[in-house]
Amino acid sequence: MGRAAPSRAAGAEPLLRRPPRRPSLAALGLLAALGLLLGSGDCQMQTPCGIQKCTTDFVSLTSHLNSAFEGFDLEFCKALRAYSACTDRNSKVCRGNLVYHYAVLGISDLMSQRNCSKDGPTSSTNPEVTHDPCNYNDHIEAREYQGGGKTTTPTYLFCGLFGDPHLRTFKDHFQTCKVEGAWPLVDNNYLSVQVTNVPVVPGSSATATNKITIIFKSYQDCTDQKVYQAVTDDLPAAFVDGTTSGGAGNIKSLQIVEKVSGKYVEMHARYIGTTVYIRQLGHYLTLAIRMPQELVMAYEETQDLQLCVNGCPSSERIDDSGHLPLPVMGQLLPQGDAAHIQSVYTLETATTKCHEKILVKDIYFYSCVFDLLTTGDANFTAAAHSALQDVEALHPRKEHWHIFPSSGGGDVGKSSKYFVSLGLCSIFVAFL
Predict the structure, then answer these.
(1) By CB neighbour count within 10 A (0-12 exposed, 13-18 middle, 19+ buried), where does 66 fall?
(2) What does the alpha-carbon distance between residue 163 and residue 387 come to, in Å, rounded to a whole number?
(3) Is 215 exposed, middle or buried (0-12, 13-18, 19+ CB in 10 A)?
(4) pLDDT value for 303
(5) HEC per residue, the chain
(6) From residue 312, how far is each of 178, 187, 296, 309, 321 by CA, in Å?
(7) In terms of Cα–Cα distance, which of 324, 299, 289 is closest to 419?
(8) Per-residue pLDDT tens digits for 305-318
(9) Pick the residue with more confidence: 322 or 137?
(10) What is the mean predicted confidence (pLDDT) over 211-233?
């Protein structure tokens, strides 16, 4: 005789009410039972009821889970809560559906077994809509996903302006310019940045920034147009309309963060992947910006005058074929105007002062020395140092943080003249 059948068949116990202890088997038991019922004619007759979609989504959310995975319980509970929410939405149209009631009981048993709270995060049943259209990185990923391509990291560019003023373009070219008055730094389809520069010292062509105007242009549903304006001694932590963010509801796709009251603010535009730092050091302002390359280059032919993109016009460069005379101890200033300089530096004292803040003798160090000798204003030391800090915070490529003189740099503290090569802009300082 064959072996006696067990007193209770393995499938006789309702899997939905008392699932096995292993959660992966519990999920399989629940889905198997529901699958049998879903295949019945009764379920197909209940066309208004959406329980089949609820169960299909649950299968999709849990099919890849492994009970050995450290985060299994968390993900399983999120899927159960999503399943429960789906059944709640169908409670009225499914009240006469047997599958629906089995599902509700099964969800309750599984949540109790896994100690899942009823309140908490839920899994998304449609991964394609999890991308935030007001987050630039998510937007790129969604675009490449829909196109079937591999996800790639966007290329970011950096531009900075500081001192009297020194410009670092998106191409990492370093220039010293006068550009007195209002000039566009950035002007593309998404963002406009304009700076206003004023003379620093009478009798000198050196200027510095005392006003910055930024326009974040309206973009889909992510933000309306927002205008920010800062002037010397008025560095607000809000846009001109009084708001501190852009975007509907709690989605802050554009936000101003005040780091130091009246001295340092950051602007984060998630929808265009752009970050802007503005500081006031002494009587003048500095600016640093990081922006995706594809957006930087999104401009019309009429918008080609952008200092961050194309650098300063040759007529606005302080250096003349690489030669830049500097005033030393007021010697080049008109009679009586030397008093406008707050303090006087020699080459040696300026070098020492700058070396206190900037240990590496890169172009930021030499710019600091240049500014001290030109203006006598010690605040320009802090400006150069902060500009380098902003590079380290925003520039995407660490190997490009420092720009070094390519030849003839020497030890500026030991010589009566020095030559600094800056790629497109080289400076020869001749002391009188």
Answers:
(1) exposed
(2) 9
(3) middle
(4) 86
(5) CCCCCCCCCCCCCCCCCCCCCCHHHHHHHHHHHHHHHHCCHHHHHCCCCCHHHHHHHHHHHHCCCCCCCCCHHHHHHHHHHHHHHHHHHCCCCCCCCHHHHHHHHHHHHHHHHCCCCCCCCCCCCCHHHCCCCCCHHHHHHHHHHHCCCCCCCCCEEEEEEECCCEEECCCCCEEEECCCEEEEEEECCCEEEEEEEEECCCCCCCEEEEEEEEEECCECCCECCEEEEEECCECCCCCCCCCCEECCCCCCCEEEEEEECCCEEEEEEHHHCEEEEEEEECCEEEEEEEEEHHHHCCCCHHHCCCHHHHCCCHHHECCECCECCCCCCCCCCCCCHHHHCCCCCCHHHHHHHHHHHCCCCCHHHHHHHHHHHHHCCCHHHHHHHHHHHHHHHHCCCHHHCCCCCCCCCCCHHHCCEEEECCCCCCEEEECC
(6) 9, 14, 17, 9, 14
(7) 324
(8) 999 999 999 888 88
(9) 137
(10) 95
Pairing of β 156-162 and β 226-231: unpaired
Q: What is the pTM of this model?
A: 0.63
